[in-house]
Amino acid sequence: MNDMVKNLFLWLVIAIVLVSVFSNFGPRHAAAEKIAYSQFLTEIDQGMIHSVTVEDNKIIKGSTKNNRRFVTYMPVQDNALLGQLLKNNVTVTGQEKPQESFLLHLFINWFPMLLLIGVWIFFMRQMQGGGGKGAMSFGKSKAR
User: Fold this and answer.
1) What radius of gyration, in Å, describes the C-alpha atoms of the chain?
2) What secondary structure does DSSP assign to the chain, as a single string?
3) pLDDT at 52 (0 to 100)
4) Going by DSSP bridges, is the β-strand pair 69-73/59-64 parallel, antiparallel, or unpaired?
5) From edge to edge, which strands make up the β-sheet containing 69-73?
6) Confidence of residue 1 (pLDDT cuts 50, 70, 90)
7) What values do phi and psi take at 138, rounded to 5?
8) What is the pLDDT confidence band of residue 23, given thresholds at 50, 70 and 90?
9) Phi, psi of 63 (to 5 degrees)
10) DSSP β-ladder status, 69-73 and 91-95
11) Does residue 18 carry a pLDDT above 70?
């Protein structure tokens, strides 16, 4: 029963690691086309932009009137952009940069180190073999 619990725990840890790796490094903006900022300004003047969302005062996501999704990055602070968007009847929303939770940050930073320590302890216990229950049990021989 004890070996089954250890094996189950090991597979659970492997599954958690794989899920966290794929969720952190997977594509985030796969459906949105990345366009140049100058192209974005041209499309505003042509009246092709339907709505935009500005994230963290740099990232601009939006959609055109023919439902094409795009993303662009503001290279410098453009104070005239808001007036240009409103003049062309573009729906503008703002969004803060999403913050990582403290637990996720702690898990990502400390989990690999704790995993290495756990594997090291596991191998040290396996190498001890017979003769005792610890590394400092040399004075407790049961041979008579």
Assistant:
1) 28
2) -HHHHHHHHHHHHHHHHHHHHHHHHS-SSSSSEE--HHHHHHHHHTT-EEEEEEETTTEEEEEETT--EEEEE-SS--TTHHHHHHHTT-EEEEEPPPPPPHHHHHHHHHHHHHHHHHHHHHHHHHHH-SS-SSTT-TT-----
3) 93
4) antiparallel
5) 33-34, 69-73, 59-64, 49-55, 91-95
6) low
7) -70, -20
8) confident
9) -140, 150
10) unpaired
11) yes
- Joined tokens for residue 19: 């899920």
Mean pLDDT over 136-141 rounds to 60
pLDDT digit string, tens, across residues 72-124? 998 888 888 888 888 988 889 888 877 777 887 888 888 889 889 988 888 88
Q: Cβ(43)–Cβ(49) under 8 Å?
A: yes
**Angle ∠(28,33,39) on CA atoms, nearest 5:** 135
The closest alpha carbon to 71, from 103, 27, 112, belongs to 27
Distance of CA 126 to CAs 13, 53, 121, 130, Å?
19, 56, 9, 10
Length of the chain: 144
Percent of the chain with pLDDT over 90: 12
Identify residue 73 by its one-letter amino acid code. Y
